[in-house]
TrEMBL record:
Keywords per UniProt: Ribonucleoprotein, Ribosomal protein
Region called Disordered, residue ranges: 119-142
This protein's GO CC annotations: cytosolic large ribosomal subunit
Protein encoded by which gene: rplQ
Protein name as annotated: Large ribosomal subunit protein bL17
PROSITE patterns: RIBOSOMAL_L17 (PS01167)
Organism: Nitrospira moscoviensis
NCBIfam families to which the protein is assigned, alphabetical: L17
Keyword Ribonucleoprotein annotated: yes
């Protein structure tokens, strides 16, 4: 029976798995988009949502709880000052997973996990950057 056995083991021992999750969540909150395998991304999604919810609380105990999980004080301050503010009206679902490619070495399914409202995406819309024109076709002239 599988009772109370939530989560994937990912072929790692417990301490290694927790270190992996902490590193991935820290990188995701720092860069706002990372590429990893599908199984890892699905596991990291819940941890990231919990950290953003702590950031939305904004209290000192919430900051201390985030500091026990995340690897960088700079990322915690970014989480509480910038990232949490973007999601203040959103009740959950702060990340999205987009399938990207297969890894060359072992054909593992790679995905990009990203925050739903990324800072660089919102700034490019505000600046009005011109769209990239499509390729000029097959080279034939009509």
């Amino acid at each position: 029976m599988r009772h109370r056995k939530k989560g994937r083991q990912l072929g790692r021992q417990t301490k290694h798995r927790w270190a992996l999750f902490r590193s991935l969540v820290t990188s995701l909150l720092d860069h706002e988009r990372i590429e990893t395998t599908e199984a890892k991304a699905k596991e990291v999604r819940g941890f990231t949502d919990r950290m953003i919810t702590l950031g939305k609380e904004g209290t000192l105990p919430a900051r201390r709880r985030a500091l026990t999980f995340l690897r960088s004080k700079a990322v915690v301050s970014k989480l509480f000052s910038d990232v949490a503010g973007r999601f203040k009206d959103r009740p959950g679902g702060y990340t999205r997973i987009v399938k990207t490619r297969r890894r060359v070495g072992d054909a593992a399914e790679l995905v990009a996990i990203e925050l739903v409202s990324r800072a660089d995406a919102s700034t490019s819309k505000k600046t009005g950057a011109p769209a990239v024109p499509p390729p000029s076709g097959s080279g034939k002239s009509a």
